[in-house]
Amino acid sequence: MPKQKTHRGAAKRFRVTGSGKIVREQAHIKHYLEHKPGSLRRRLQAPSLVSKADTKRVKRMLGI
Fold first, then answer.
1. Closest C-alpha among 19, 41, 39 to residue 29
2. Average per-residue pLDDT in the chain?
3. Among 6, 47, 54, 64, who pairs with 59 as Cys (CB 3.0-4.6 Å)?
4. CATH number for position 28
5. Is the residue at 3 inside a domain?
């Protein structure tokens, strides 16, 4: 049976930490930043963990 291919869209959006957790980037931080308050921009810069409900699906797409 052939190997399972990694979902390339998921590979660009998620990464795995050393402890095995899945990390993603926050939305709303790429453009239109001039009218957003600085506190919001700083908060959105931090990466966040994938929710527990989606972790199994993301791991399967990444081939983990």
1. 41
2. 94
3. 64
4. 4.10.410.60
5. no
Q: Is residue 28 part of a domain?
A: yes
Query: And the tokens for 16?
Result: 């795995």
For residue 53, tell me if it sits in a domain: yes
Residue with tokens 């660009």: 12
Q: What is the pTM of this model?
A: 0.80
- CB atoms near residue 28 (< 10 Å): 11
Count of the separate structural domains present in the chain:
1
Percentage, residues of the chain above pLDDT 70? 100
| pLDDT (0 to 100) of residue 1 | 81
Phi and psi for 48 in degrees, rounded to 5?
-125, 160
